[in-house]
Amino acid sequence: xxxxxxxxxxxxxxxxxxxxxxxMQMAYQLISNGADLGSVKEMLAMSRELAxxxxxxxxxxxxxxxxxxxxxxxxxxTGHNSKKYADFAAIAKAVDPVISKHGLSYRFRTKQDDRxxxxxxxxxxxxHSEETxxxxxxxxxxxxxxxxxxxxxxxxLQRYTLVQALGLAAAQDDDGKAAGIGETIxxxxxxxxxxxxxxxxxxxxxxxxxxxxxxxxxLRQSDFKRAVAALEAKRAK
Length: 237
Known about the structure:
single chain; 13% strand; two-stranded antiparallel ribbon; 3 domains
């Protein structure tokens, strides 16, 4: 055997499969093989789109799995009119262990102008994230000072943006009324919706479930127009 041609393959550097290369490594490989810059840019764009889609799919799968495991949140606090609600600590206790198990996490971003804005950023370890934003005025009820008024609204908005981001059923929560956010519709508005439901032939229990409330009387003022629009859309069909 020709010793000059005898090659110990164990001494050759390992070549990773194309599927294991990072986009930059693939780009370098293409350029090294004589590919033009336009082709490389197109490949990088396609690679980023594919990675984003895979991250979104991983996020959706994790959300689905986590929601199936999250148990009902215990209402551990008392708000206005002696109504029970779940505070942020109770919600976090119920959801944090479950979502972290599935690679999910959340954080908040806040901004203040004439109102207080809170954004809940729900992210997955694969890189995809989604945002939910709510806003409201400072809670000036009671004997709160300016900082306490802001803190009260922040707490409420953090609680509800997290609930919305996770797609959890919103429990009846009278605490939001103190922050000027969760006011429910009036009796007159309830009657308006009832008349519309009957007029367009909608199913009341299904419509209430669609609105994600226990009854029409629990619907928030901010959702009244959406409810009317949904019923009018049914009439137009």
